[in-house]
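Bench notes, afternoon.
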Amino acid sequence: MARVERFIQKLNEKHIAQFVMLNPKNITYVTGFTGDESLLLATPNKLTLVTDGRFVEQAKREMPENVTIYRWQKGLLADTIKLINESGLDSVVFEADQLTYEQGRKFVEAISPDVIPMSGVVEEMRWTKDPEELADIRKAVQVVDATFLYILGEIHPGMTEMAVAAKMEYFMKTHGGEGTSFDTIVASGIRSTFAHGEASHKVIEAGDILTMDFGALVNGYASDMTRTIAIGTVDPKLEKAYYQVLEAEQAGIDAVTAGMTSRELDSIIRGVFKKYGVEQYFIHGAGHNVGLDIHEGPYITSRPGEGDIKFQANMLETIEPGLYFPGLGGIRIEDDVLITDGQSEVLSTAPRRDLIKIPV
């Protein structure tokens, strides 16, 4: 079933008479339109892209013919409000998390029908990936696999983290990626304790542990991988931690399957760290879905509500345990994992079984 038809089916299931889609990634997912500063006004009978003159020709090329294009005259929200008020429908649902408080207040006050804020309508559709999406993500993973092998031959003491990130990003963009999934994380030495330590001008030194978290985009779809390596010989505690993190990741990979809850998987991953008495050094979530956004639900978590979500076949989750020791350094390993009804599939092939040590 095409995405437009699936989306209309979702509207009917939720008894939504009219829906204002504001999230650009959701619009791309449903219609194929990749422009910005636009919104989708949807009913079970008609989908209308409200946009301006810059995107009309692009929309014609990218969207199916059953999506109408409306070129606004007075403004994006102003014309949308006019269309809603003229619709004759009793209610309208909108993606409340996409507007500021002030925008939302004005939007609600200007609309005649009952206004219902709602989030997650399209995001839940995006949880599972269709064959086309998986093909793009596989290509994006291949780009980061190649990037990791390339950068291993480039890294040496005396380089800055920024120089490493620049080389990685250039390689991704010239070897099949259309861009990066996010700003590349390169964190060395003490900075590796920063879970999201974007590259700085710090010089990489012998004895540093070095974490690289990076991803490529292919047709808008993201990959996400983390590898940690050693620059020469590192503190024995960090080398030991590397294999504890690897064990936790592999435990998650081996266990995850369709029907398992997020809480169950989170507990398995964290259980490895509890076994070694280092669970207090795992300071972030154990993973997330990935697709058009680098961070999508469902997340691997034990939080109330979210932890009860059951994984489904064709969800694409990252598994990314880590240990971070203040004043010493941090370790993280992350791979993109395709969930199936049986054994999961790790999409990346970049080496991780042993701590790679760069000669100094």
